[in-house]
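step: validate -> pass
step: tokenize input -> pass
step: predict -> running
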Amino acid sequence: MSERTGYANGEFCWVELISPDVEAAASFYGDLLGWERERYDPDPEGYWYFRHGGKLVAGLETIRMEGRVPAWLGYVKVDDVERTAGKVDDAGGTVLDGPLEVPGDAGSLAVCEDAERAVFALWQPGGLKGAELVNEPGAWTWNNLLTRDVDRAKDFYGQIFGWTTAQPEGAPDYIWNWQVDRQRWPEGLAGLMRMGTDMPPGAPPHWQVYFMLESTDQAVEKTKAAGGSLIYGPVDIPIATIAAVFDPQGANVSLLEGRYPEPR
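step: predict -> pass
step: emit ->
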């Protein structure tokens, strides 16, 4: 089920890179993941799509908001962005931008912080339903929340999306998977991890965005050669080999060699 034409409410559906240098970012990810960049013409401020094998896989935009830093951002599909943004405020989070309609009838969005200031976004689809290719080398495959207050995160996202959590069989006691539809996603739709002492000092709670590729070792070397840096890894886990890096413009991006379970 690597090709997608739509997403369920409460499911991550899209990822985009916010970068201060879109030309350099497009060159780096083109080399790393085999992507091609395409201008989204209805947006006068500068938005691009990334394609892999002709399929939409991610977005790219310039930094528009004061205080924003280079980062990958994950979008969760909702049927009413205004109503869901109101839930964010009620649950102790913050709406940073929006709700607003994207030019060209692509959809409506809101960029939010959770109660621990990890940033995520809401997406009410119009013409853009989400990524058209996932869970293959060169495509996005997983989202994982790193936070120090797991109980607060469970309460927050439970209020917003109705998510619950379950620990994967054999996983350590600081790892969970988010659940929204156990029949469709028996293994979970995203991850949750308690931040420990192995994280860089002062690292804030944040959502990781994972991309699948053929070799994490090669990807790390390419990242270093392009001016990026290693955060951790590559490390082996039961289902994959993973690493996290800063890309050359400073965005945190996670790399995965292997396969996370797909929905039924």
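step: describe -> The radius of gyration is 17 Å.
step: cleanup -> pass
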